[in-house]
Task: structure prediction
Amino acid sequence: MMKVYTLRLNTLIFFVSFMTIWGLISHYRQITVNERCSRSLENLNSATSPVASSPVSNKPSDCRQAFTKFVNKAWEENGLSLRELQQLQVDLKEREESEECECDGGFYGPLKTNVKYRRKRELERLEKEHWDEQEPLVMCNAMSPIAYIGSGLTVEPLESVPLSGLSIVDIPSMQGNQEYVIEFVSLKNLGVLKVGLAGKFAEKVGLTGQESGQVKIFTDMNVSDTNDLLKNVIYRSKVYDIDARDIVEVRFRGFTVHLHIHVRRKPFPRLFDVREEDNINKKVTVITKTFMRYGALRAMINSVHEYYPGMTIIVADDSKDIERVTDPNVKQFIMPFAEGWFAGRNLALSQVRTPYFFILDDDMVFTKTTKLEKLVEILEDPNLKIDIASTRVEKEDGIMMKTLFTTSIYERGFSRDGHCINRVYNSRHGYLEEYPECEIADEIPNAFMGRTLEVRSIGFDPMLERVGHYEFMLDALGKLRIVCCKDVRVRHLPIRTPEYEKYRFSDGVGNSKGFGGRALYSIYKNNLKCMSGMRQKGPHYYK
Result:
């Protein structure tokens, strides 16, 4: 009897479990269908005219009809059939899956799931804020009778700009007296359109929607006169925004083209009143961050003034027992104790008044090979457009260091969880053709000259309190052009005291101590999946 009850109970449990699982699967499938429906409808609504009388509804029963319309629209605009669209979707999916990167060898990451989720929400918010600032993808239709400028039209907010470059191509079907319509629509509704009808156009042109976001021109003029009229089409920004993008859609005889207009509040330039013949001291300021090793600091100051007398040196100092530095042309800024290395670099950089600065550690010194003029020459070359030019570092015996203070590059792969970064040590992307001794790289030694304003725009992350270097290079990746010149050098004279060492190797970020703490911070901050090639070990480090 007991066996019968047990069998019935097991059967009941199995049946309940099966129905629960089936319900979840059905719910998931319904969500997936509704999601696909919503996406199809979104695509269709965005593809149809913004002045359509009624957008497509979001009822599941309308999905098939909406998708059919979307496919037909895609065929009209791009010549893609349903089969081709489906194959394109498969190709994109396979490409996305094939581009899932992994970090090989020793690496840090990935982040814990809850941290990745938090970062994803922050990234989505940031991308949404900057979405309208992205450079648009401009598609130029083949065999179109409309000549136009796809992008490059810029207007100040609340100001006007003519739609330059717009014209109709003289085609046989337009010969003879026949009326046709040219329509202009501001798709994002950031501006209004106006057509000047002075002189000969006053009686030959019909017009609707003047000073609105949708203007129609009715005319039977010949192509030459029509193109003269099109020179009088004006776009006026009506919404104040310092950086926004509108699209003017032009419709003519079944053809449609898009004119991308950049609404941009152009900033004033920041100029330095320095002449080419001025002494280098008016062009370059030396900056450094010091911490509890005044012997090294004084050696550095003496070496700078030996080769560049009178050059300004800015010192950011967060030592415990402050010693005043009274040397001429030295500005010492006192910080709270152990405030941080990158915080000190930011402080020093903020006080620079010259177009260029040279930064180095307080235990480095100038030598006869520290040729700042060479670095200035590279930064001033308008053809190179270099933002940072670094030196190499030599040991006390004058031999160049080859295992430390060298160049590296960052190989970057893609994944849904962020980029995979592989640091290729002692490597470079190439060389400057004009200066073959200068290597193009992503990471350079910790002694370099930079353009003051450009590097300020990146800054040094003050979260890095005791140790930091590659973090600045990751922040500058894709924003600053960087080279390292082997024929310009500084010398490294390390001075370490027990008190200094105690703080020096307590690197990390917040409660995440050690190199691994720094790595995890960079992984979160720079939207990375993992980092390899960093050599040191720490939290979330995998062999």
